[in-house]
Each structure stands twice: as C-alpha cells, then as structure tokens.
Amino acid sequence: MKKDLRSHWSLRKVMAGNGMLYPILGFASCVAFIYMSFGDLKLSSFPREQGLSFVERNGTRFFLDGKPLYVNGWNSYWLMAHSVEENTRPKVSAMLRAGANMGLTVCRTWAFNDGGYHALQVSPGQFDERVFKALDFVIAEARRHGIRLLLSLVNNLQPYGGKTQYVNWAWQEGLGLSSSNDSFFYDPSIRKYFKNYVLTVLTRKNTITGIEYRNDPTIFAWELINEPRCITDPSGDTLQDWLEEMTAFVKSIDKNHLLTIGLEGFYGPKSPKKSTVNPEEWASVLGSDFMRNSNITHVDFASVHIYADQWFHHLGFEEKRTYVSKWVRSHIEDCDKELKKPVMFTEYGLSDQNKDYQPSQRELLYRTILDIIYKSAKKKGSGAGALIWQFFVEGMAEYNDDFGMVPWESPPIFKLTVEHSCRLARIQGLLQENEKFKRLCSKRK
C-alpha cells in the first residue's frame, strides 16, 4: 500500500502550522492539577545538576553515569512552534513540568520547520533567528525540568515542510533532478541542503545556556528523519545509501550524542519477517528495512512505531492487541540476538476515531506495550523504552490529533504512565538515590 496510512494524522498536523495563535485557555487549571496531585514535588525538589552526563550505549542497553537507563517518555512535536511567541511559551513549560511530575524522562519533539509559517529554515541555508531562539528555549526549559530531548531533524511527511519542501526548493532554483519527493534521498543538491541544515543545527550555540547543541547532554539523541519511506525504490538501496551517508555525517560533527533513524519498523523485501511480522505485503515495499537500516554502524539504537489500528482496518481490537504484542516482541528479539543494540518504540498510539473505539482500549493496549518493555528491562534486554504519541496541555485542540490527550484528563493513562515510570525507576535503583522518584513512587504504594 503506497498511501500514507496515517493521512488523517498528517492533515491535522498541517493545521498546526497554519499560523493561528491560540489563547492560553485552561493553563491555570493545568497547573492547579499538577500542584494538587504532586504539591510536594515542586521544581525546587528536582535536583539540577550543573554537569549533566551524556547518555551512552553499551551493547543492548543505554547507560547514564555508568548505570543502566530505561526510558519512559512522550511525544510533544509542537514544543518549538509553541515557543516562538511569548504568550504560548507557558504551555511548553507546563508540558515539560507535567512530564517530569509523571516521572517521564525523555520527550521527542521536532527540531525542524522547513518553509511556511514560523519556519526555522526559511529557505536553504537561511534561518529565522527568532525561531532558533524558540528551539533554544525548548532545550533550556527541558534542562530546567530534568527532561532530555530526542530531537528529530526532518519529516518524511509534508507537515512542517518535510522532504517535499526540500524538493520544491531545489526545483524552484533550477537544480532539482526530479519533482518526485523521493529525490530528497538521491539528488546531490538536496543532500547538500540537508547537510548544511544538520551542520547549522548541531553547531548552534544556545542563546540561553551558551552551550552548543552538540555539546549539550540535555539532548538525549538525534533522530535523522521521521518515518522515512522511499517508495520509488522498494529494494531499499536508495534509502540505505542516504542513511549511511547522513549518519556518518552527523557523527563527524557530533560524537557526543546517540543517533537513531526514526523508522516505523517495517521489514524489507529480503527479510524473512516480511510475511510473518509485517502487517501486510505493502509494508515490505516502502523502501525501508528495519534490520538493514538499523544495522548501520553509526546508528546507536533502533526505532519503531506502533499503529496497529492504522495498519489493519478489518481486525477487531483484541486481534490488534495480539498483533502489537507480536510486533513489539519481534523487534526486541531482533535487537537482543542480531542487531545487538537497544530499541526504542518512539511512537505508540491508538486513534479515538476507530469505529469500535472505547476509552478503556488505550489503557489495555498501552499496558500491553509497556509490560513487554518492562519484562525486557528486568532481564537486561534491549527493550530500552517507549514514547507515547502524544501529550499536550489544555487549550490546544488545534494541535491535537486522533491520538493525543491531556494526560490528567485520562486518569487510567495517567495512572499507568506513573506506574511504569516507578517500576523502571526501581530497576534502575532510583528510588533509593533520587528524591524525585522516591516522592513520586511512594504515592503509588
């Protein structure tokens, strides 16, 4: 299947870049909720280390300060976009504070906006300093709240510009080899555009902290591209060549940070799992290959997305949940036995627009995913973490999609999130040495 199976999600993301500014509605109630729930977990009780360490990888596990690290986190793609204007910045602070108060440690967000409204990169090599300062704010604010960031560098999809914008730029300048979106991966001019973008972002000196991005451990890792597909070359050779070149380029600039691709996790045409684990035949001809792509030397950890309800439209919820269990276990097995790298499930969600949707389904599905990761972590396996798609705060309906939620408006998800944070903290021995987790998790007993 060659269409975007999450087009409804993409279209709603497009709405987020249409330039509308939204009043800060419900912010006070958001803060009130956090305070009432965790009144003794004020920011001052979260230790602010002056000398943060970089997250590292050793074999199939992440390490921080020599100790294993397992991630419970979330997606809020909109942080930079919401930091451009002063009147919307409080929502960014509120979201990061709320994440920290749920014991979450990593937030995945966009470090790109190519062309269009509030673009970071206005045209190839031309940047809007005001938007760059917004990204500076996101990083500085994340550090202040004890959150690390997984920063994505470009979109395969059209929202926020994506590879389509790069192709259009090359075409408009008379340099493009093709009008195909996939020329992003093979056009020399576009490769040069992207490399310049990567160099500019990674060497950016934060105007708030004074730290170059490549030297800032607040950044958990770089993600090369969100959900890469190159359907014009189902063999996967074109995408593989691009990934090998770009991962090496990133590492030539920044040897401090971990690097992942941003894959959906589909197995390619030569993989034996294409017919046993992929959702359907279409998934093997998208030009990506989980095993081949993730095995690239400069890729530090594998990434996988989970959207069974978008991949199957004829199955019932329980059948989808069974499939998700198989999908997660398969990728952990791959990383345990073959890739010998950690794997993070960097997006997982369930649409509230499914015909048979019931709110209780989210808690059941998310628990299924998190339980498998927890069991892997207990066995010192490669299941390194998961990031829910997506969280936001009140008064942001236009930035929402079929999967998003204000966490405290969904008590079962809120409870599950905190519960998972605490059980991962126990594995890591944080309940004895970290005041934040000691206080948070004592409330769960």
Per DSSP, the total helix count is 14
Shape: globular
Rg from alpha-carbon coordinates: 20 Å
Q: In what order do the strands lie side by side in the largest sheet?
A: 10-9-8-5-4-13-12-11
Counted beta strands: 13
- Proportion of beta-strand residues: 5-15%
Tell me the structural class. alpha/beta
End-to-end separation: 47 Å
Helix content: 25-40%
Q: Averaged pLDDT, please?
A: 89
Largest sheet: 8 strands, parallel
N-to-C order of helices and strands: HHEEEEHEEEHEHHEHEHEHHEHEHHH
- The poorly predicted ranges are 1-49
Catalytic activity: Random hydrolysis of (1->4)-beta-D-mannosidic linkages in mannans, galactomannans and glucomannans
Protein name: mannan endo-1,4-beta-mannosidase
Organism: Hibiscus trionum (Flower of an hour)
EC number: 3.2.1.78
Written overview of the protein:
With 445 residues, this protein is α/β, with parallel strands linked by helices. The protein contains 14 helices and 13 strands. It has helices spanning 7-15, 27-37, 89-101, 129-144, 162-172, 188-202, 237-253, 290-294, 308-311, 317-339, 359-378, 411-427, 430-433, 435-442; strands at 56-58, 61-64, 67-69, 71-75, 106-110, 121-123, 126-127, 148-152, 219-223, 258-260, 302-306, 343-348, 383-388. The strands form three sheets. Strands 10-9-8-5-4-13-12-11 form an eight-stranded parallel sheet. A three-stranded antiparallel sheet has the order 1-2-3, with no helix packed on it. Helix 6 packs parallel to helix 7 and helix 11 (359-378) runs parallel beside helix 12. The relative contact order is 0.14.
